[in-house]
Each structure stands twice: as structure tokens, then as C-alpha cells.
Amino acid sequence: MSPSPTIVRTVPALRRAVDRLRARQATIALVPTMGALHDGHMALVALAKRRAKKVIVSIFVNPTQFAPSEDFSSYPRTWKADLGKLAAENVDLIWNPDVETMYPQGFATRITPEGPATVGLEDRFRPHFFGGVATVVGKLFAQVRPDFAIFGEKDFQQLRVVARMARDLDLGVKVIGSKTVRERDGLAMSSRNVYLSGEQRVVAAVLYRAMKQSAARLQAGYDIQAAMASGAEMITEAGFELDYFEVRDAETLAPIASVKHGPMRILVAARLGTTRLIDNIAV
User: Fold this and answer.
1) 38 is catalytic
2) Residue spans of beta strands (DSSP E) within 22-166
3) What does the pLDDT look like over 147-205, one tens digit per residue?
4) CA 268-270-272 angle, 5° bins
């Protein structure tokens, strides 16, 4: 049986633990999570282990990235199962602060990202979101002081926002994206998939098929509007309420005007019942 990782819940304890991990100049990789861990998270941990000598996983459900109408109180929390998975992966440290530790009374500082945080994708539907993400990730980077930070490509706009923030603020952290881990039918693994009914779970795979179809048409030289319209139609006909289905510049996430553009990314967000799913693929 794998030994349980060290768990710390206060900033002084974290700093002492990080100092011990830094012995002999060991490199550290941080995997920020909100818990409810699945195989996608374990892929992040595996990549972290390849990039650094020591791995720290944070588990913190961040209230500042949830709007009042969103699912903060019901967000899945599976601490015992999470601990077992991380022990099996032999992570070195779990950083598990509570809300009062991250946002003590009188907390008054926020990071407000621009650039890829203001391109009209997630920010159009969740205007609060990236400010909450940037602030909590900025705190995590300051607390842990990692050499590397591993984020999943499933939240692609978030990945671009965090990478831009780390560069702009000279935080000394190399942000690395890890490929999306998918179910056998293509659905991206997500903690929110547990909200889907059995019937909805079958329908949810349409998102991936629609992206693949539109990507193939773009690669074949179809007009952008026509290629994307076909995928959007597939998604809505399956019963989704579509927020966006767009192809963007893979680095800046700016809109593109031609299929001759450089690296591109198709990004989608859609609701199936009360569950909102996001995904993306490279073109």
C-alpha cells in the first residue's frame, strides 16, 4: 500500500514543507485542482512527475470563480477518494487550505487579467471567472513557488490566461499544458460529468464528434463559416443549448479570418440540461 502524502493546510506549514522538498535543489511541479479527481487529473500528475523531482497537488474549491447562480455548494467533493488516488501516484505533498486561509478577513487584492481573458469566449458567459482564477492561481504560485505548473488543455482559455499571467508578472513558473484525457467515445473527462444522467451521458459525446467534423472541413479548405455552422447544427440538434462554437488562433484566441491561418483551436461550450460542458481540439 502506498504511503499517504504529506498534507498541509496552513501557509507556514506549507512553506516549511516546500523548504524540505527543495533540499538539494530539487525541482517542484504544482498541479492545481479543485478535487473530485479523475483520470484526467492523474495524467496531469504523471506529467508533473516527468518534469520535476517533487510534485505538489493543491486541492481547493475556489469560491471566487463561481457566480452566485453556479454550483459552488454542490461542486463534487471526494476527499477520501482523492487522497487514495494521490497516494497511489506517490505525490510528495497535498496543499489543502480552507477558504479562510486563502481569503482571510480583510482580503482586498484581485488580479484582473486581460489579453486571452477578454476574447469573448468563457469571459462572455462567465465575466467573473478569470479574475477568480487568476487571483487564486497567483496565490498558489506565490505560496508554492513551483518551477513548473501543470494545467489541462480541456480548459484551454484558462491555460492561456494563466500562462500569460505567469509571463507578464515574471512569476518564474513555466506553465505546461497537458493533453485532454477522453472517455472511449471522445467525451472530455471532467468532474462535472457526474451531473449527467445516463441518457445525457450518451448525448454528450456529440461535442467531440462535432468538433472533429468541423476540424476536418477546415483542413479540407471549407469556408470557415460553413465548416463551423455544420458542427454547431450537430450540437443543437442533439439537444444542447450552445453558448459558443468557434475556431480561434491557438495562441492568442483571437478570431481568425482564413483557413490559411496558422495553428487554430476549435472551442465549444454548451449546456445539456443543467450541466455545462466545455471542450476544444487543435485544428
Assistant:
1) no
2) 28-33, 54-59, 93-95, 148-152
3) 999 999 999 999 999 999 999 999 999 999 999 999 999 999 999 999 999 999 999 99
4) 145
C-alpha grid cell for residue 249?
Answer: 488562433
Domain-wise residue ranges, the chain:
6-178, 191-282
Sheet of strand 93-95, all strands in order from the earlier edge strand to the far edge: 6-8, 93-95, 54-59, 28-33, 148-152, 174-178
pLDDT, position 1: 53
State the cell numbers at 149: 505548473
**In Å, how far are 1, 53, 74, 146, 195 from 191, measured between CA atoms?**
26, 28, 12, 25, 9
**The predicted structure's pLDDT at residue 69:** 79
Domain 191-282, CATH 3.90.1300.10 — does that match?
no
Annotated catalytic residue within 38, 41, 128, 261: 41
C-alpha cell at 87: 497516494
Helix/strand/coil for 138: helix
C-alpha grid cell, residue 188: 472530455
Domains 6-178 and 191-282 share a fold: no
Question: For residue 16, which amino acid is it?
Answer: R
CATH 3.40.50.620 fits 6-178, yes or no: yes
